[in-house]
Amino acid sequence: MAQTGTTGTVVVGVVGAAIAGGIYALSRRQPVGPNNVADVPASRLQPAGAEV
């Protein structure tokens, strides 16, 4: 696509920027900060030798 000249280069750039923007938007859904950096979900693992 980029071999089609200026138009192809612009299209590739716009598509790349859109993908980068989408990745950035997805990364902002659950940001990590000082209040939740150490949050760990409850473990469902059983200790060794425990009855199931």
Short description:
The protein has 52 residues and is mainly alpha-helical. The chain has one helix at 6-27.
Can you give a write-up of this model?
This protein is elongated. The mean pLDDT is 82. The longest helix is centred in the first third of the chain and has 22 residues, at 6-27. With 52 residues, the chain is an all-alpha fold. The N and C termini lie far apart (58 Å). The protein has one helix at residues 6-27. The chain contains 1 helix and no strands.
Low-confidence stretches: none
Largest sheet: none
Q: How helix-rich are the residues, as a percent range? A: 40-55%
Order of helices and strands: H
Q: Name the structural class.
A: mainly alpha
The DSSP helix count reads 1
Query: Strand percentage, roughly?
Result: under 5%
Total DSSP E strands: 0
Q: Span from first to last CA?
A: 58 Å
Principal-axis shape equals elongated
Q: Averaged pLDDT, please?
A: 82
Radius of gyration: 23 Å
Fold blueprint:
Blueprint: H1 6-27
Keywords:
single chain, 52 residues, mainly alpha, 42% helix, elongated
